[in-house]
Amino acid sequence: MTLGAIEAWWWPYVFILAAGWAATYPWRALGVYLGGRLREDAEVLVLVRAIATALVAAVIGNLICFPAGPAAETSLALRLLSAAAGFAAYFFIARKVLLGIVVAEAVFGLGFWLGY
What we know:
- It is built from four helices and no strands.
- By secondary structure, it is an all-alpha fold.
- Helix 3 runs antiparallel to helix 4.
- The mean pLDDT is about 90.
């Protein structure tokens, strides 16, 4: 079955919901099943956290090095500066992820608005 298999207006929405559910629900169920049985410092959870962190770092690196859309019009220096400012705000001010994100977005937005 494909996205274009049915011509009804509602079919893409049903397809996306079903595909999203089928791809994520088994992992959620497994997490709930195993979640109560694992210690927080278990090696498998350390591995999972490391992989998740590496994936986030890879996505951020991809956005910095190979931007798409309007971000592609900005300079590499602006993208690097906004990432560094967000990291510095996180690390030196309060160790709050939301603060780092807001600072990085503010620096990037200001630089974009100013034409850098």
